[in-house]
Amino acid sequence: MDNHSHHAPQRDVREVVEGAPMRISRRETMRATVGGIALVASEAVSGLVGAPSSEAMGGEWAPRNVYLPTTDAGETGTNGFSIVPPSPPEPVKFPRPRLRIEFAVCLLRSAYEAIDDCDVMAMDKFQATQWRFRASEWEPYKYLYEPLKIDQGAIGDPLYFDFASFVQMATAAREIPKSSAVFEERTGAEGVASVVRRDESLRNNSSLPEAVAMRCGNRIYDRLLEGFDRGEDFEIAYFDGVPKPMTTGRGNEKLADCVEGMRALAEVFVNSGYALKVSVDNDLRPDPDGAIDGERKVRVRVNGPATLWGSRELKSRGYSPTNEYLGYTLTAFLARSGVSSSYTERVSETEIDMTWRLSA
Fold it and tell me: Is the pTM of this model over 0.85?
């Protein structure tokens, strides 16, 4: 972790939480290139996305990556991606670390830009809708934690970050089923109106949750790897220990390197206050499902994440995408490394338990 971090002024926090413009114009969001692999926003999304094309990899086999988690049983909720638990979650009953402000801003801003980039809805409407939804959910959420006081807008506080990340993703998920591929959007101080037409590859609303997850994960990974520029007078935030894509090796050798990379990336999240602990265990035992050479099963257990309540609440309502920032970012790293991946997820009252399947 760098030693140049400092608390964000309230204006920056409000911009991220309330979804206001991020001092960048529409369509100027980052399309970074890492390891010579360009991320193109118009990639087709059909459930297995996010990997570079075979042409981008010199004509070699290209990986396929699923950014959204599923359940072990493969059950789906109202959006077609996550299981619906029997009842709403209880509050988190143990202390969690404070998040590094720059890291919290990075996660929320990356999700906001992913929603914008996928043209889920007009972002002026998204901001207004999110504000109303947050207002309706705030009092019930505060009541869960009484007599603890939650400072609204303090995104370094895991209690508030949990709520803010839930509100952001819930707003998008609620709008996706009724989203229009063509809409009017107003931007700038003058509210200039323009017509937005969603990319043809995303015209089917059922493709939007995966598309948002993919773009969110790639933006987070880029910013952690290259530094996060918050704009204006803020110093660029850097995050020590972020692994570069594993571009060498094949088969089991590449998979072993990628598991180490997953472990290093998880540690960056922990060092930034995202969770109490993240364990990445490489399961070398024979796979009962008949895994072959070049495949690997990995278990990632996230103890006390800052999204623990929000993740359970999103799933309890059947909303997708969820606030699974670590899963999205790990998938982006694996896709850049030329490794296929998918993962199942179980959320308990203390942790998020993910089982990954990798192939190279």
Answer: no
Alpha carbon of 299 to those of 302, 346, 352, 354: distances in Å?
10, 11, 11, 6
The answer as to whether 176 is a domain residue is: yes
What count of other Cβ atoms lies within 10 Å of the Cβ of residue 194? 12
Instruction: Show pLDDT as tens, one digit a residue, over the chain (360 residues).
Output: 444 333 333 333 434 444 443 333 333 333 222 222 222 222 333 333 333 333 333 345 567 999 999 875 444 443 444 444 446 688 999 999 999 999 999 999 999 999 999 999 889 899 999 999 999 999 999 999 999 999 999 999 999 999 999 999 999 999 999 998 887 887 776 667 888 888 899 999 999 999 999 999 999 999 999 999 988 788 999 999 999 999 988 888 999 999 999 999 999 999 999 999 999 998 655 555 545 568 899 999 999 999 999 999 999 999 999 999 999 999 999 999 999 999 999 999 999 999 999 998
**Residue 2 forms part of a structural domain:** no
Q: How far apart are CA 274 and CA 350, in angstroms?
A: 14
* DSSP secondary structure, 27-69, as one string: T-S---EETTEE--TT---SSSB-PPPTTTTTTS----B--S-
Residue given tokens 């996660």 in the structure block: 107
Cα separation, 260 vs 185, whole angstroms: 44
Instruction: Return the C-alpha torsion angle 84, 163, 108, 26, nearest 10.
Output: 90
Report whether 53 contacts 60 (CB < 8 A).
no
The alpha carbons of the chain give a radius of gyration, in whole angstroms, of 19
Give me the number of domains the chain comprises. 1
Q: Which two tokens stand for residue 32?
A: 């970074």
Domain of 169 in residue numbering reads as 10-359
Asked if residue 39 is part of any domain, the answer here is: yes
**Residue 4 maps to a domain:** no
Q: Which helix (H) or strand (E) holds 182?
A: strand 182-187
Backbone φ and ψ for 195, nearest 5 degrees, come out as -95, 130
